[in-house]
UniProtKB/TrEMBL annotation:
Residues 1-41 are annotated as: Disordered. PANTHER family: CHROMOSOME 15, WHOLE GENOME SHOTGUN SEQUENCE, GLYCOSYLTRANSFERASE 2-LIKE DOMAIN-CONTAINING PROTEIN. InterPro entries: DUF7928, Glyco_trans_2-like, Nucleotide-diphossugar_trans. The chain crosses the membrane at residues 239-258, 278-303, 681-708, 720-741, 762-784, 813-830, 842-863. This is Uncharacterized protein. Keywords: Membrane, Transmembrane, Transmembrane helix. The lineage of its organism: Eukaryota, Fungi, Dikarya, Ascomycota, Pezizomycotina. Residues 490-703 form the Glycosyltransferase 2-like domain. Residues 27-40 have a biased composition (Pro residues). Residues 58-207 form the DUF7928 domain.
């Protein structure tokens, strides 16, 4: 029995013959770039052969071989308009039989306009019988997948290209196509076999349904119908209160700790009547803010070990642990746009694999009856060389991708070019805003077009390209754009190094359609590794840890986060919360005033009454890349810290006129968002201030304990005891609770989970212990309005030799390393050579500062694979 995976994966034919080696292995979606075939010596050994001659010979061999198989399977009647068409170069095709190009059928011409690598007709009596019915909108393969029907060959350029097949009513045939010639035969065979299977089963008491997990057709009793999750009204979602109880426990511990300190102050004041101790009250709010996350982690760890976990498999207000009921496919499914902002990433190594993954999902969605388009926001197109830019444009055209690009950052109008400012420090938000504004302008111009009664798809396409050209011209040539850049009902926001599940669109749009109050549907993500070095694996573990904790917290009823990728956004909600920028008088969607545009967007939507929901039923199906180097990971932490500071505080110079807090933060505090969610968000933001202040507090503790030990007020808690508590809660109890949780939810065995958790303790201890100075730099840079900027993280590993990596480390960390050397020397001096009464040699004073110095010094060295691998 044929299976749906055969639609994209060729198998060995019954005759035992195999696809020739020089035909790439197929995939569901056409590959982003033609894969390099194995060396074909028969062509390479031709004397005085040119590259064009070799390409021509290879193309002729492949097209004739496919046509031969077409005739063997009796898929052609020899009539005009039947055969195989193969692209051998951009805009240049070869066909077999050769008469196909001039037989008047226009198939050759329309396949060229469709811009696919290879296409083949299939004409059989079964197909003609199926298409004998007029006005057939589609042909159903399975209850979940169907193939389009077009009237004639003239409509081919306007069909749903990503379905990779179309039935043509006149003259009654099937056309299959792919960017991979090896797929054609198996794709055609799958469609024909599936149709026959459906016809044979139609008169029986059983019907065929589709098993997503096995990707196979399975038989079910027709009286049973579909699973109750397939159609029907969704069940109402309840609000889980577990997080509310955990929040209450957290605040109880925080207030108790502060109360214990206040009790000691009160007793001391009663004894010695020293009312200066009341100044400790100024520390209450900072202590409260910085300590919430610590106690929240303590409570969560205990709950993960002994608390309920059934909610992690339920569908609740903010969490989806199970797939939603599918939308019925008798109507029109929502239009989806995949938005992918990119910069100067490698086309072959980074962008193309992501496009292949996305196009596989698009093909599945279009076979289910939906429509989707890819919209690339290419911020590198006008920055890279002309040769690389043309290569990208050819790739986008080949894959049917819409794209938009803006000029390079040129605030002074240098090199004879127009002045152009790329707003923002991270530039991603302004990149997406520019592309979306161009799309909206195209829509505005299309809305002004008057459509007559006989308006056709050809007329609509011509109107679109006129509107696109007019929108480009309105920017005085600044904007470059081609392809379909219109935005659909929902936006799937991805990064350039993303992988998506093959069958994910229908579930996502079903959930969004059934929950109109949800503006963002954030999916849990897994990680795919690029280089597999120890640092990348360590960050992979840490990323998976974060996603597990997010999944647990949101399932308990906490607010769902928006991490900026692998998320579905409601376009209408984004338009509702759009703001008018006074700087350039343009309506914008993403904030260009903060580097945490995703966090700001989530706050803006939630304070406007929308919800952010977290979906975990796809497991690790969505995948993302992680930082490959310590430089990139440190840059991410600096950017997040800077962004959190931007969200809460005004720079110091604005405090006299605007006050210390931002309008968005005040709106957040006074919004109707649940109180436990506000506590969680404030705890998250407070972690950056806790990490950033740790080196300052530890240095102060060194002198306070070293010189005034025994004379300090009992309200003061020294760094040694604080550090011990942190190690116990996060390092020991945290890893134990994570292992138990993963065991309880069935992800891993208890022993393997605990072994993995504690194996990465040294790496995370060094990294988290060494980020304090760098985070404080970002926080202080914002408060004092010091300019900082960050580029995109590396998507490919640059394996630099040992002696070339040393200068990079020195350049990046020279001030940190110098400070560590001075501090280490100071500790030695104060312990051995300072005057006796000024010496500091107490262990509880020296140990915390020594640990801080060691971790800051070791982080750029021992966490750098290019140094630790000792390559020359």
């Amino acid at each position: 029995m044929p299976s749906f995976k055969d639609y994209f994966k060729p198998k060995q034919s019954e005759e035992g013959e195999k696809i020739p080696e020089n035909v790439p292995s197929p995939t569901l979606a056409p590959p982003a770039l033609p894969r390099k075939p194995p060396p074909a010596k028969i062509f390479g050994e031709l004397p005085n052969s040119s590259p064009d001659l070799v390409i021509n010979l290879k193309s002729d061999v492949i097209v004739n071989w496919i046509h031969l198989k077409q005739e063997e399977k009796i898929w052609t009647t020899g009539q005009p308009g039947e055969g195989v068409v193969l692209r051998k170069a951009k805009g240049c095709y070869v066909c077999c039989p050769s008469e196909l190009q001039y037989d008047g059928s226009k198939l050759y011409e329309k396949v060229a306009q469709l811009n696919v690598c290879a296409a083949m007709t299939v004409t059989t009596r079964v197909i003609k019988l199926i298409l004998a019915r007029d006005n057939l909108p589609y042909v159903e393969l399975t209850p979940r997948h169907r193939i389009q029907v077009i009237h004639d060959v003239a409509e081919l350029p306007f069909c749903q290209k990503n379905q990779c097949a179309a039935f043509i009513s006149s003259p009654g045939m099937l056309l299959v196509w792919a960017d991979d010639p090896g797929v054609l035969l198996d794709r055609a065979a799958f469609i024909q076999d599936t149709l026959m299977e459906k016809i044979w089963m139609r008169d029986s008491t059983r019907d065929t349904t589709f098993d997503d997990k096995k990707l196979t057709l399975v038989e079910t009793n027709s009286s049973e119908g579909f699973d109750d999750k397939e159609f029907g009204e969704p069940k109402p979602r309840q609000t889980v209160l577990v997080q509310a109880f955990l929040c209450a426990a957290t605040m109880t511990l925080v207030i108790s700790a502060l109360g214990a300190g206040a009790t000691r102050v009160a007793i001391e004041i009663y004894v010695d009547k020293n009312y200066y101790r009341l100044l400790f009250a100024l520390c209450i709010l900072p202590q409260l803010w910085l300590s919430v996350f610590f106690f929240q982690a303590l409570v969560a760890n205990i709950a993960q070990i002994i608390g309920p976990i059934g909610q992690m498999n339920d569908n609740t207000r903010y969490f989806s642990g199970q797939p939603p009921r599918k939308l019925p496919r008798d109507g029109t499914l929502p239009h989806v746009t995949i938005q992918m902002p990119i910069y100067t990433e490698s086309l072959e190594a980074v962008i193309a694999p992501t496009i292949r993954s996305v196009k596989a999902a698009i093909t599945t969605y279009e076979l289910q009856g939906g429509r989707a388009n890819i919209f690339v926001n290419d911020d590198g197109m006008q920055v890279i060389s002309d040769k690389e830019a043309q290569k990208r444009q050819d790739f986008y055209e080949e894959q049917g991708i819409g794209w938009a690009a803006r000029p390079a950052h040129n605030p002074r109008g240098e090199n004879g070019k127009r002045k152009f400012i790329r707003a923002g420090k991270f530039k991603k938000a302004s990149n997406m805003n520019y592309a979306l504004a161009l799309s909206v302008e195209v829509e505005r111009r299309l809305a002004e077009v008057e459509r007559h009664e006989n308006w056709t798809r050809t007329d609509e396409d011509l109107a679109y390209y006129k509107a696109l050209k007019a929108a480009r011209n309105a920017t005085c040539g600044d904007a470059w754009a081609e392809g379909d850049i219109r935005v659909g009902d929902y936006i799937l926001l991805i990064d350039s190094d993303t992988r998506v599940p093959q069958d994910c669109f229908l579930e996502a749009v079903s959930e969004m359609e059934q929950s109109p109050q949800v503006a963002i549907l954030q999916y849990s993500s897994g990680v795919y590794n690029v280089d597999n070095n120890f640092f990348e694996k360590g960050i992979t573990f840490f990323t998976n840890l974060i996603y597990t904790q997010i999944r647990y917290a949101v399932a308990n009823g906490d607010v769902a986060p928006f991490v900026g990728h692998n998320a579905w956004l409601r376009w209408s909600a984004m338009q509702d919360v759009a703001y008018h920028c006074r700087i350039d008088n343009v309506e914008k969607y993403w904030s260009e005033c903060t580097v945490s545009e995703d966090f700001e967007m989530a706050l803006r939507l939630q304070t406007s009454g929308y919800l952010v929901r977290y979906a975990a039923y796809k497991g690790d199906g969505y995948k993302e890349g992680v930082s490959l180097t310590v430089y990139d990971e440190l840059m991410r932490w600096e950017k997040y810290a800077y962004g959190c500071s931007e969200l809460v505080f005004q720079p110091l110079k604005y405090w006299p006129t605007r006050g210390p807090f931002t309008k968005l933060f005040m709106k957040f505090l006074t919004s109707s968002m649940p109180f436990p969610s506000k506590v969680s968000i404030m705890a998250y933001i407070g972690t950056y201030y806790a990490l950033g202040s740790s080196w300052i507090l530890t240095l102060s503790n060194y002198f306070l304990i070293g010189w005034f030990n025994g004379f300090l007020d009992h309200y003061y808690l020294d760094s040694f005891r604080v550090g011990f508590a942190i190690i116990f809660v996060f390092t020991f109890l945290g890893n134990l609770a994570l292992g138990v949780l993963r065991y309880r939810i069935g992800e891993k065995s208890l022993i393997s989970a605990l072994a993995e958790n504690f194996a990465w303790v040294p790496l995370l201890y060094i990294f988290l212990g060494g980020v304090s100075v760098h985070i404080s730099q970002a926080l202080l840079a914002h408060m004092f309005s010091i300019d900082m900027s960050w580029g995109s993280t590396a998507k490919e590993m640059d394996n630099t030799p040992f002696f070339q990596e040393i200068p990079k480390v020195v350049k990046k960390f020279k001030y940190t390393l110098c400070a560590c050397l001075l501090a280490a020397g100071g500790i030695v001096y104060m312990a051995k050579y300072a005057p006796v009464l000024w010496r500091i040699d107490l262990f509880t004073a020296v140990w915390p500062l020594s640990t801080l110095i060691v971790t800051h010094a070791l982080m750029p060295i021992v966490l750098n694979p290019n140094l630790m691998l000792f390559t020359w």
